[in-house]
Structure formats: structure tokens, C-alpha cells
Design brief:
Layout: H1 12-25, H2 31-55, E1 62-66, H3 81-91, E2 95-99, H4 104-110, E3 116-118, H5 122-126, E4 131-134, H6 139-142, H7 146-152, E5 157-160, H8 167-170, E6 176-178
Parallel strand pairs: 1-2, 1-4, 2-3, 4-5, 5-6
Helix pairs in contact: 2-3
Length: 198
Amino acid sequence: MRPGIGYGGSCFPKDTQALIQIAGHVDYEFKLLKSVVEVNRDQRYNVLRKLTEYLGELRGATIAVWGLAFKPETDDVRESPAFEIIGRLLEAGAVVRAYDPVAADNFRKGLEHPNAVYCSSAAEAAAGADALCLLTEWREFADFPLDKLQALLRQPLLIDGRNAFDESEIAKTGLVYYAVGRPRLNRGIREQSPALAF
């Protein structure tokens, strides 16, 4: 019950669709559950909206992605939000540098693209990127030294899709930080709009 970029995996997506279908068989329009599915899908698009808000054009941008599994401590990528987010980034012309501690091989089977680079470490993925998007809340990522992260990134943009980072620690850095349901921290020089949470 934590805010984030939405659920994935083998259960929630299948079960919610099954319940909607069962309701339809008895002529009941399950509006509440349909809204749950719609909101869940829209949450992942907020990552893309925040990237565009800060960077403008995504074509040619290098976006680091930390986390490919639908949840930490697994190599399961079934219905992972990362598929749709990375797919949209690639469609927009971005180069994606992705890393996951254990799920990269499984993810690569579902998404091969010349502009999708699968890295062997979190630092390798972040090096020279215009932004970093955290999509799975592995402990390794939350423990990554923020000063090192800022030094690795070409631009100081961190989009935390799982609220994995400590805001008080982020506030000590020059990182422009978007989390879910929280105000943006550390206004960047490219920011023009008021602080928004997603």
C-alpha cells in the first residue's frame, strides 16, 4: 500500500481483469475496479511526464533506469511497469541504459532494441545519463551514495518511482528529485514550472 508507479507481476493485472470480466457477465459495470486499472497504468506515464517537463525533448537523451523486475528480491518481470516506460522512452528516441541486480536477462528476452543498453552495475547505467529513473526499490539503489550518483549523471535529475530515497538526504544534494505524492525537491536550472508531485 505504498505509492509508486503501479503494480505488476502475474497476479494483480490478471485478477483485476478477470474480476471486471466476471462482473460484465452479470451485467455489472465495475467502475471502481476499472478505475483502479486505469490509475495503475497512468502512474507509469508520470515518469515520462516528469522527464519531458525537465528535459523537454527526449530524442537523443540518455536515460538511466534502475530496476526492471516488477518488485525487488525477484527476477520476475511479468507485467513489469518497466516494459511500458522503457518502450515509450525508446519510441521517443531516447537511449536507455538499464540495470537490475537479477532481472536483466529475463527483461532483455522481452525487450531487445538497439537503443536499450543493459549494464552490469548501477554506476555504469547512471554514468553520463541525462536522468535516472528508479523503477524497482532494490535496497542496493536506496543505499547508493548520492554524492557519487550526482557526479555520475550528466544532468542532476532523479525520478524516484518507488519513493526509495530519504528526502532529508536528497535535500543535502543538488539533485532535482521527483518522487510519488511528494513535492519536488531542489529546483533545477531548467525548471520553469511550480513544484508538482506525481
